[in-house]
Amino acid sequence: MDLELKGRAAVVTGGSLGIGRATAEALAAEGVNVAIVSRNQAQLDAAAREIRAAHGVDVLPVAADVSDTAQVTAMMDRVAAHFGRLDILVNGAAHPGGLVRSEIELADPEGLLQDINIKVVGYMRCAKEAARHMKAGGYGRIVNIGGLTGRGSKQLSGMRNVAVCHMTKTLSDQLGPHGITVNVIHPGVVETPHIRELYAKEAAKQGLSVDEVEANYIRATPIRRTLTPAEIADTILFLASPRAAAITGESIGVDGGITRGIFL
């Protein structure tokens, strides 16, 4: 299937590692010119060289902190000027797993505020600035990376993902008339550079080994394995394409079936 993406331009925040890096790779493989964004310029430069060499597209590495409004505005303007257009935004910059994963007695209010500022308000900052350029082109795709903690009650930081879903639906209403769709996906247990850190934290909390924690997650997943970043990127790739024009305001789990709720 031709996804009709060749020649378009995208911004991927959190684009140097994990799901963000895999998404940038997938877009580049379809002929999309990509700006990858994070706070670490060295990691961005290395990723950009590798993606550029593999796919022959223009890859722009831009260091920016999404918790800083001025930096986000400058980043989006730079990207749009560099590519001459901006068609796709993938919001993925966030603390993996959230900063507040403890019981209320140990929960850090400042950590929660940081989680919300980076992921919720950070996504909004990026969407606001990207939408200006997308409206000018009459086309836009915004894909927010949420998280399954928003569908359960295990971590207080999960509230940031609930807020991302609300924002996604609201923006889909506001931006739809301009040819811009907005969706959110919720990855399951994905093999990224950060997953081992989360396993270790859970192991210490539960009195288990890291291998036992991983085995428990796999056992709870109907497909009986963890997911790869490329599998998450494939869903994002479709949602970013003209082929997905009829899908907007949706909250989609890409989780191997680990979510047990029924969502109509």
Describe the structure.
The structure is a single chain. This protein has 2 domains: 9-191 and 228-254, Rossmann fold; 193-226, no CATH class. With 264 residues, it is an alpha/beta fold. It contains 8 helices and 7 strands, in the order βαβαβαβαβαβαααβ. Helix content is 46%, strand content 14%. Helix 1 (18-29) links the parallel strand 1 (9-13) and strand 2. It has helices at residues 18-29, 41-55, 69-83, 109-137, 159-175, 195-206, 210-220, 229-239; strands spanning 9-13, 33-38, 59-63, 88-91, 140-145, 180-187, 251-254. Helix 1 (18-29) packs parallel to helix 2, helix 3 (69-83) packs parallel to helix 4 and helix 6 crosses helix 7.
Condensed summary:
The chain is of the alpha/beta class and 264 residues long. It has helices spanning 18-29, 41-55, 69-83, 109-137, 159-175, 195-206, 210-220, 229-239; strands at residues 9-13, 33-38, 59-63, 88-91, 140-145, 180-187, 251-254.
What labels describe this entry?
8 helices; 7 strands; 14% strand; 264 residues; globular; Rossmann fold
